[in-house]
Structure formats: structure tokens, C-alpha cells
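Throughout this chapter, every protein is written as a compact record of paired, labelled lines. An example of such a record is reproduced below:
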Amino acid sequence: MTSDTPLLHASGVSKRFGAVVALKDASLTIKKGEIVALMGANGAGKSTFVKVLTGALKRDNGTVKIHGADQHIGSPGAARRAGLVPVYQEPSLIPDLDVADNLALGNTPVEPFLHWVEALGISGLRLDDMIGNLPLATLRILDLARALASEPEVLLLDEMTAALPTDLVEKVLAVVRGQADKGQAVIYISHRFTEIAEICDRATVLRDGETVGDLAIADGVEDKVVELMLGAALGAGPAVAEASARPTGVPRLDVHQLRAGTRLADVSLQLFPGEVLGVVALEGQGQDELFDAIAGMIRPDGGTMAVNGKEVRFHHPADAIAQGLTFVPGDRAEGLLMQRSVHENIALPMLARMRNWGAIKMRREASKVRDAVARMQIDIRAQGEVQRLSGGNQQKVTIGRWIATGVETLLLFDPTRGIDVRTKRQIYGLVRELADQGAAVLYYTSELAEVPAACDRAVVIFQGRVVDVIPADRADEQTLMRAAYGLTNAHEVPA
């Protein structure tokens, strides 16, 4: 091995999950003492790449070399022995065990671990503390301390600072830079350009599972990175919805300074009848908690919500439904009875809304179900069981059940994820039709091109706060991506 030999070189790495291609040509090179940012939009393949490199997932093709020698890493333990140690997005500690037992499971030396815990800003930790009783920020630090205690040659950090307060973020960045100064290499995934500019030497950019660029960190590199993430030839994409007049009057939903968990810090928004309000955010910026709080799935830690001008507090999803708020989750399995028929799934809310016992009006129910199936263009050839439908048709059923019942406020969380273009366009049209009939729609999407196609305006959330409000006619992908990364756009639009 020469002095120019990379510490780690991955080339042509691919990974499929059934029909889904998560990685198709991912490559990355890092030398001793370097910190390389691994960047990409939602779904670009960053986390999958890290899991392949560290043995949590087996690659389908490609090569991984350490110090110039081919490596066939089949498990996280093998990766650790080869010097590759990750800290994943979610804590990898067992909540029902104490700190000492978790260290023993990973053969982590106690003294170096405690040294790093203190260096990273956590004091008063006891080895007999139960992991399940510790806050998320502390767990993230413990995961990092455990990784550092093993003296890795390559440290892989996946959104390490996303759930940390500012003081702990500063400690982490200082430690990471110190490790590089001592000759270790660090692969750093973050949605925060300020952190990347502060500590990283280069940025490797993924798009659709493929490495599309490698850039030195310098002034003005943000725009080039955004361009690489989106692609030079974006194509025509979905048509832009016709511009609507700014809504006035009493909001259907008024959220003020809502806080929940460690990610939703302070979100205010207003959603009006007849409006489709988009929500744009990169992974882990608080959008999940926002929708869960509005839908009554979790109780917020602070802030207020009002429906039609009246303040509300939800203790259960049924409370939200009673106020006319309908939630369609991103995971279709959460919203459907997969072994029941299309008819039963669509008719279910009708039964739930009955106020007294009595005969079910079967003809009326059947008529409403048929109308929903027709409007949603649901393929019912396999209606014996919803689980036999395609993903797109399953999503249509989750929305169609509320069409049949009637909807006032629809909360859609990434409704077109994993479905074909034709079905996406059908959903855009239906959402617009509902809004034209007076419904209010809150629409989170992980696909930026959907915003001008489906929404009247969009709120952009970064680090749990609204950082921009953008009308549809200005919501091009580059503008949205810059805002989602916390970068300043040229315009300012009031909420």
C-alpha cells in the first residue's frame, strides 16, 4: 500500500429490494484524515449505502476495498473488525438493558466509552442506567461514544446531530474534526449545510442510488450540490397547478407554535377551505410528528391547534376525526384491513360514524362505495383482498374510503410514494377536485416535483421549524431544495 492508497474505496455498489432499486452505481473514496459528506435528496440511497458498507445489508454488486484490499463484509461485526464503525440514524441500544449490558453485548471497553461520553458533553451517566429511561439525545451520544471507543479507522455518521441540542452538536463537531486530525476518516451524512461547510473536506453526491458528483467544499458549492441532487435535465415533470387566490377568512386548521418530541420544535401554519397546502421537509425534520400531532396520534408538548376558529385538544385519533380531520398515513398497511375486501375497507368509516343501532342501509352504502371506486378509478378485479391490489390501488382505497364518507380536512402523508406516474396524476387531480369542492388538504410529499403540481403553496420545515412559505408558481425544485436544507432563498413570503 502506498501513501496515496485510499483508506476506503467503494465502487459500483448496487442493492435491490425486490423491484425497488435502492443503489445502482454508488461509489465513494476516502483517505486518512478526511471528512467526506455523503449527500443526496430523500430516497437517494445514503442510508442504504452506509448499511452496505458496514455489513448490515449485503451488496448485490460492486467492490469495497480497505487499504487497497478487497473486502467481503458480511456482518456489522466483520465491518467493525475491518475498522468501519457506523452510528445509524436510530439508536442501536437495547432499551430493556442497562448501559453496562449494552456495552458487554458489543464488547465495548468501558473506560474509553466513559471518556468519550464525558468529552461529548454528557455528565452523570451511570452504568446501571436503563437505556429505555434515557432521552433520545443522550442515546445518540452513547452510540457515538461506543463507536469511538472501538477506535475505528472509518467512522460513518448518519444524521448524527439531527436530534441534538446546539451545545451537544458543537461537542460532536469538535470531536469529529479531532478524529480526522488524528488520521481517522469520517463519512458524514447531514441535511445541515452549515455543519458540512464547517467540518467536511469534500462532498460525494448520490441521486437515485448513483454517485453523480464529488466536490471540494468551498464557498458557493451549495448551489452545485443542489443541482447534482436534482439532475441537470429535470424534464417537464408534472404540470403546474393553476395559481389560486390567497385564501382568506377563518382557517379550517390553525396550528400555532406546535412542539412535539425532539424534532418538532416550533411550527405554525394555517390551512384554509379550498386549499392544498404542501409540507416540504427532508428526512427527520419533524414532519412525522407534525402530522401525528394534528391527527391525534400523539399529544404535542406545546403550542395550540384550532379547527374552524375553535381551539381543540386531541387525546385520541377519534377526537381528530370527530373534528373533521382525516389522516391518510404514508404506510398503506397502517390505514387498511389488508385481508378484507375493497368494499369493506371503503365502507368502514360509514359504520364507525353510526350514532345508533339499527339496520345498515345497504343500498346507500353500496352506492357510495361504487361512487368512490369510480372516482378513484380503483382496479377491483382482485377485490377479494386489498393485499392483492397493487400499491397504487391500495393507496386509492385509503383515500377513497374518505371520499365515500365525505371529507372536510384531509391530511395526506406522502400519498404517492412508490406508485406509478399515471396513478400519481390521478391522485393530483382528485386532491384538486376535493379542494375545489371546499375541502382543505395538508399534503406532505417527499417528491419536490409534486408541489407545483398538486399544491397552492408550501411550507418548508427545517430542524422542526418553518423556514419558508412558497407559492406554487415559485416552488421549483431548486428553490424547495435550498429551503429544505436551511439555505436562504431570494424571496420572503409571509406565513
